[in-house]
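Q: I have 512 residues here and want to know how they pack in 3D. Can you give me a structure?
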Amino acid sequence: MLSTRVSVAMRHRASLVACRAAAQVPATTFNEVKFVKEDVEKVMMELPDYNFYEFKEPVPNPYQGTTLDRSILLDPPAPALVAPKFEFSKLENGIKIASVDKQGLTARLGLYVHAGSRFETSANLGAAHMAALMGFRSTAHLSHLRTVKTLEQMGADQSASAKSGREEILYQVDVQREMLPYVVPLMVGNVIFPRMLPWEVKSAQGDVKTDKEALMSNPDSMVSELLHKAAYCNNTLGRSPLMSERSMGYFTPETVRGYLLDHFAPERMVFVGVNVQHAELTKWVMRSFADYNAIPMKKREDTKATYTGGDMRMEGKSPYCHLALGLQSCAFGHAELAPVALIQELLGGGAAATSTIGSGVTSRLSTQVVKQSPFVESCMAFNTSYADSGLFGVYGVGQAEKAGDMAMAMATALKGAGSVTKDELAKAKAMLKGKMLRQADNDSELMQDMGQQLLLTGKYGSAAEFTKIIDAVTEAEVADCAKKMLGSKLSVAAFGDIHAVPAYATIEGALK
């Protein structure tokens, strides 16, 4: 069955989006695309062969047992290699389209909607999660069963997912690239004409309990959840992407539909494709919207995230103590994100049982925290940026009895983040650039990077462009950025066996 799980995990590593200083990137040029009335019969002639109403029986694999020393192609086609190029368009209704064709056989498609849990109010808490759970169900064109069977026949039933986060809801499908004309209208149908049948909404509520159990069984995700609640107490980013059981009884099709009408305007959407031809993707997105009145863009209150800091702790089943110390960072696309990413790289991280290449065994947290105590299992720095705020800090896992020692060691390493030598900075730059360029080869990371940059800033800068920004960062900028973060109020989150975690004031004093 289709995956509709909510994404709440803490980001522990430097990703492509970790140091996007979009303020220093030239404005992205979008090709304007007008809606065109087309002959339906001619459009249908462009579709690849596919029978919606044929359920094929499984057949044996004809190539089973074939080894690599035997060719299965009599006349292998000559490769037509073309350098990947980022292309951007915008429909006249406001939706942005971005793509890059790496000539892979599998197309990765993502529809981003700027409608995460931060936009919820007291009247509809959990609406974003419920909207994601209703993804890939009945629409005006296809029933839930037909949607599942259609994706199943194309081999995309396991890759199709709808996930809600704090900033966005993401509809994603991985499919053979020739099946793009079928998948794009199916994805768009979820956001412009979902049916929201009462029995489907009621059945989706059962998935909330499953998601809650999955969250509670993942200590890393629980610490992230608690840290956000402490850092943004009772506002915007502090709201959980998961619906609470208390609000489940109030959810009806009208509640979810009302949330969609408030936030699912095309101007708040970005359609991203990797391993697709841009002209083909643009054409089918345009056709999917052409005959429908889009949800109008409403004037809404621009509520800024308010960083409060604070302390959140919860007993859990884990025998270890999971502890995170957080500080206010800068927003996504801010010029200071490059120094923040370098500080994250300087602190790095490591685990007691890992010593592979690239595992961070020479980083500060590895040498100053993990290697200094046999009771610390792992420790690493993280940074999460949003449209108007950010959260930077250190996350550690250790033996419960020694949680106090681990907390003090983490605070000491965090306090010294601004002290950096020229050689350390050069090493951090090389490592960060290497990670960015390697992740640019990952289709999933690339799609996420394109979608989030365009959704939150309206611009896009490639990894190659940001390596130049990283090279320009100086030791003084790193020190100033660290000083600014350390000047913010501390956020503390603990989960598991927390009986030995020091008091909030004690940890805060260690950072002074």
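Q: Anything worth noting?
A: Confidence is low (pLDDT under 50) at residues 3-19. The chain has two domains: 34-48+83-205+249-290, 310-510.
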